[in-house]
Design a protein that fits this description.
It is a single chain. This protein has one domain: Rhopdopsin 7-helix transmembrane proteins, CATH 1.20.1070. Helix content is about 75%, strand content about 5%. The protein is built from 10 helices and 3 strands; from the N terminus they run E-H-H-E-H-H-H-E-H-H-H-H-H. A 3-stranded mixed sheet has the order 2-1-3. Keywords: Cell membrane, G-protein coupled receptor, Membrane, Olfaction, Receptor, Sensory transduction, Transducer, Transmembrane, Transmembrane helix. One of its GO terms (molecular function) is G protein-coupled receptor activity.
C-alpha cells in the first residue's frame, strides 16, 4: 500500500510570515506613510458619509442607503489589510497566525464580492430613478432594498465559504513565507504541499462569473440611462442626470480596472509582470476605492456636500460656544 505524500500532523503552520512588497524594501517608509494617510482618509471620509446619511432624514433614500452600506464595506475592506501592512513596513512585524491569515483572506475577498454587488445595486437605482421616475418609490421599497442587500451578502458568503474550505484543507508542510503584503488567496495557495489548482480554478471561475455578470448588468443599465438622458428635451436636465451618474461611473472604474488587472495578472502574467507590480496592484485595489469613494461622492453629490458642510459648521459653532 502506498504511503501518503504528506504527514497529516504537519499540515498547518502556527504562523505565516508576510514578505510585504518584494523588491521595494527601500521604499517601505514612504509606503507606510502613504498607506497611513490613505487609510486615515478612508476611515474619516466613509465614517462622515455614514454619519451624515444616518443623521439627515432627507437622505433616507435608496441611493444613499446603498452608499452608506458601501462606506461600511469600504471600512471593513481597508481595515482588513492596511494596519498589518503598515506594521510590516514600519516595524518589520510580518508574522500572522494561521487562523488570522485565513480570517483576513475571508473578509478581504468577501468584502470585494459585496462591493461589486453594491455597485450593481447602485446602477439599478440610477436606472429606476432616471428611466422610471414615476415608479421609483414603488419599485425600490424598503423590502426590495433589504432583499438586495441580503442577496449580495449571501452571494459573497456562498463564494468565499467553499474557497476557504478548500484552501484550509490543503497541507502546508513547507515554506510559511507568503510573498505578499496580505493573505491573498493565490499567494497562500502556492505554499501548499498539494496541488492548489482546484481552489485556484474555483476562485478564477467564480470571480469571473460574479464580476462579468455585474459589469454586464451595470453596462446595460447605463446604456438604458444614456438613452433616456439624451431623450430629454432640457439640456439642463441632461447635464444634471449625467452629473449624478458621473460619480458612479468614476467609482466603478476605480474599482473594476485595478481589480480585474490584479486577478488576471496573477494568473496570466506571473512570469512576465514583476512580483512587486503584482503585489502593488492588489494592494492599491483594496485601498484606493475606499479612499476616493467618499471624496468623489462628497464632491459630485450636492446633497451630501451640503449636509457635510452644515454638520462641520454646526460642530465648529458648538466648539466655539463651549470655548467661550
Amino acid at each position: 500500500m502506498m504511503e501518503p505524500t504528506y504527514n497529516h500532523t504537519m499540515e498547518f503552520p502556527a504562523t505565516f510570515f508576510l514578505v510585504g512588497i518584494p523588491g521595494l524594501q527601500s521604499s517601505y517608509l514612504w509606503l507606510a506613510l502613504s498607506l497611513s494617510t490613505m487609510y486615515t482618509m478612508a476611515l474619516l471620509g466613509n465614517t462622515l458619509i455614514m454619519t451624515v446619511i444616518w443623521m439627515d432624514s432627507t437622505l433616507h433614500e435608496p441611493m444613499y442607503y446603498f452608499l452608506c452600506v458601501l462606506a461600511a464595506v469600504d471600512i471593513i475592506m481597508a481595515s482588513s489589510v492596511v494596519p498589518k501592512m503598515v506594521s510590516i513596513f514600519c516595524s518589520g512585524d510580518s508574522s500572522i497566525s494561521f487562523n488570522a491569515c485565513f480570517t483576513q483572506m475571508y473578509f478581504v475577498h468577501a468584502a470585494t464580492a459585496v462591493e461589486t454587488g453594491l455597485l450593481l445595486a447602485m446602477a439599478f437605482d440610477r436606472y429606476v430613478a432616471i428611466c422610471k421616475p414615476l415608479h421609483y418609490s414603488r419599485i425600490l421599497t424598503p423590502q426590495v432594498m433589504l432583499g438586495m442587500c441580503v442577496t449580495i451578502t449571501s452571494r459573497a458568503v456562498m463564494f468565499m465559504t467553499p474557497l476557504s474550505w478548500m484552501l484550509r484543507h490543503l497541507p502546508f508542510c513547507g515554506s510559511n513565507v507568503v510573498p505578499h503584503s496580505y493573505c491573498e488567496h493565490m499567494a497562500v495557495a502556492k505554499l501548499a504541499c498539494a496541488d492548489p489548482m482546484p481552489s485556484n480554478l474555483y476562485s478564477l471561475l467564480c470571480s469571473s462569473i460574479i464580476v462579468g455578470a455585474d459589469v454586464a448588468f451595470i453596462t446595460a443599465s447605463y446604456v438604458l440611462i444614456l438613452r433616456a438622458v439624451f431623450g430629454l428635451s432640457s439640456k439642463n436636465a441632461q447635464w444634471k442626470a449625467l452629473g449624478t451618474c458621473g460619480s458612479h461611473v468614476g467609482i466603478m472604474a476605480l474599482y473594476y480596472l485595478p481589480g480585474v488587472a490584479s486577478i488576471y495578472v496573477a494568473w496570466l502574467g506571473q512570469d512576465t509582470v514583476p512580483l512587486h507590480t503584482q503585489v502593488l496592484l492588489a494592494d492599491l485595489y483594496l485601498i484606493i476605492p475606499p479612499t476616493l469613494n467618499p471624496i468623489i461622492y462628497g464632491i459630485r453629490t450636492k446633497q451630501i456636500q451640503e449636509r457635510i458642510w452644515s454638520l462641520l459648521m454646526h460642530a465648529l459653532f458648538v466648539h466655539f460656544n463651549q470655548g467661550s
